[in-house]
Write a structure and sequence with these properties.
The chain has 18 helices and 6 strands. It is mainly alpha-helical. The longest helix is centred in the first third of the chain and has 36 residues. The chain starts with 13 loop residues before the first helix and ends with a helix. It binds arginine.
Amino acid sequence: MKLWGGRFRKGENKLMEEFNKSFGFDCVLYKKDIEGSLAHVYMQVQVGLLTEEEGKQITEGLQGILADIESGKLALSGDYEDIHSFVEINLIERIGDVGKKLHTARSRNDQVALDMRLYAREKANDMVGHIASLKETIKEVADNNSVIMPGYTHLQRAQVVTFKHHLMAYYNMFDRDEKRIKNALEILDESPLGCGALAGTTHNIDRNITAQKLGFKKPMDNFMDGVSDRDYLLELMSDFSIIMMHLSRLSEELVLWSSQEFKFIEMDDLFTTGSSIMPQKKNPDGAELIRGKTGRVYGNLFALFTVMKGIPLAYNKDMQEDKEGFFDSVKTLEMCIQIMEGMIGTLKVREDNMKKAVKGGFLNATEVADYLVNKNVPFRDAHSIVGQIVIYCEDHNKAIEELELDELLKFSQVFERDIYDFIDYNNIIEKGIKKNLK
Ligand code: ARG
């Protein structure tokens, strides 16, 4: 069942036919394909390419196909080349010869360009919703857990932070991600319908009508660009890759924090799995899988970059390869964002262990140096003095705040009683993170 048998003397090689088909994966575009066709028919009637009656028959035929697919009456299966053939052939079967007029002033090239753009637009909007919801959950958990924890550099305890501040770093990353997708949505907001195969059409069509009907800002300016632009997919997949990178970093933290070595959090049973041999195990598989799936989302991006880099204008069949990777990335990302939201929303914070780790890590050493600087000691000297104090503390198995004033005075004469308040962890947070972030 083909749309183009006319100029061929023989049928296609069987393997070639299978090789060429995209119906197995582009069937997910059925709704967008029909939406696009409905807008096209509407325009055909407006400009006089179809009579009102013809337009009505085709419109009803298309709406019937859509309803039957959605209700399960019409299965997305059979020996069709692609979703466009499926819809058109079914239409002609239903309403007869008038259905053959649907494709007047259109090519599958502008048709598929439109379908993918409509699909990408919908999925990108869904993604904005998923990210917004993840952000909300992060904010809620952060607000409920303003407890002190060690902040790290080089994965070595560095300075005191709060769990709230640490989580809110991710909130900010996802906030930028949301903006990036919205920005991509703005750029892709042009309609390729009416670009034809590559050179428009001699028919008196009105691309503004279809662009407006399909909710686009305007028709694309250039026909050849219109049918062969896949930038918006690359842009969205780049955005998706950045989101996966953020999710993967957060996943890595969840894996570390839930380990017996850190014990900063407990992950809920809902998002962990067990071992078939070791009865005690509770593994953070959700986080690990997100970390792992990041690779496949990057891979899909680079596959399409590579597909696109050498193809001349305008449409080439290579471009059919844009679909599976994009669909896979959308599905993967949707799942990963939702799993991450579930993991964050249900984790338990072990405040006691976080506090213990803060105490044991000399996380107020920088503030001891700041104290000395306030008493007019040059910073480099202060740094060196505190270094000596840390060695002393290590030798005596004490935290800096546990030293007597007499002990501190051995390192510098400027220490006074107020040092203890100055290097109290909660006061450090008040003076640093809290004050400077208002
Ligand atoms: N299945 C094709 C694709 O995904 C549809 C466009 C076909 N156009 C063509 N000139 N053969 O790209």
